[in-house]
Amino acid sequence: MFPGKRAPFRARLSAAGVGVFLLFSGGLAFRLQSQTVNLAREYIRLNGRLIAIENPSVTLVNNTHPSANFLNSANFETGDNFTISVSGASPNTAVYVSLNGGSRSQVATTDVSGAWSGTGNETTTGTYSEVWYVGNNEVGVLTFFVISTPTVTLTNTTNPQMSPNFHVGNSFSLTISAGATAGNQVVGVTVNGGSLSNLWSTNTGGTLVLTGVENTAGSYSEQWYVAGLPASVLNFTVTNP
Predict the structure, then answer these.
(1) What is the pLDDT of residues 70-116, one digit of tens each?
(2) What is the pLDDT of residue 53?
(3) 94-99, strands of its sheet edge to edge
(4) What are the start-end ranges of the E strands in 2-150?
């Protein structure tokens, strides 16, 4: 992911806030904490003047698959849409990014509120580390990866010709592959639209193999996830012999 393709959009602002009185040497100050996500900064009123206290941050969001969002960052499949936002920084100041230890490149300029935001689509698989700056001040580090859609394969090892379907008592082998970029990542599944169960993890190569026996007749629709990113839906039936 590289921000040169991100189109900035205007941040929405709000005047809502809460206040706290503070004592400073030489006078009484009033601190106003902004309640607006895109205006993550605090203010103090000192001797009749409202002074901004910068509290800059950067966040990355996966708009296509919100289940892959974590803390201030997210992981992606190729083609996923993202939004990146800088807030609480100096107004009208250059925004830079350093990608994977490279040199800084300017990608935008903050607006009058000290915010900037842009969107785009992830196109290239890999592992990324981005250090973001406003002016000469570092505002945050984003680490994430981009993978191709994980594959899931279900095989009837008792009667392979029936795959992916089964008779009760048949053995199965299920393989999920997400590539080495997604090594040691949480694997979860929903069955027939139920709740998500995160019970496994990929190996260092980004693969998980599960084996067992099908014991309950029925029709099943399973959605598997790697690090919150979905594989294709797996549909199969288990019938009595």
Answers:
(1) 989 999 999 999 999 999 999 999 999 999 999 999 999 999 999 99
(2) 54
(3) 76-77, 137-147, 126-134, 94-99, 104-109
(4) 7-8, 17-24, 27-34, 42-46, 49-53, 57-62, 69-70, 73-74, 76-77, 81-87, 94-99, 104-109, 116-121, 126-134, 137-147
For residues 12 and 37, give the distance between their C-alpha atoms in angstroms, rounded to a whole number: 9
If DSSP codes are grouped into helix, strand and coil, which group holds residue 68?
A: helix
Rounded-to-integer distance, Cα 237 and Cα 161, Å: 14
In angstroms, the CA 223 to CA 217 distance is: 19
pTM over 0.90: no
The pLDDT of residue 48 is: 59
Backbone angles phi, psi at 67, to 5 degrees: -65, -15
Six-digit token string for 32: 């106003």
Distance between CA atoms of residues 42 and 139, nearest Å? 16
Sequence-distant (≥ 6) Cβ neighbours of residue 165 within 8 angstroms: 156, 236, 237, 238, 239
As a whole number of angstroms, the distance between CA 223 and CA 207 comes to: 16
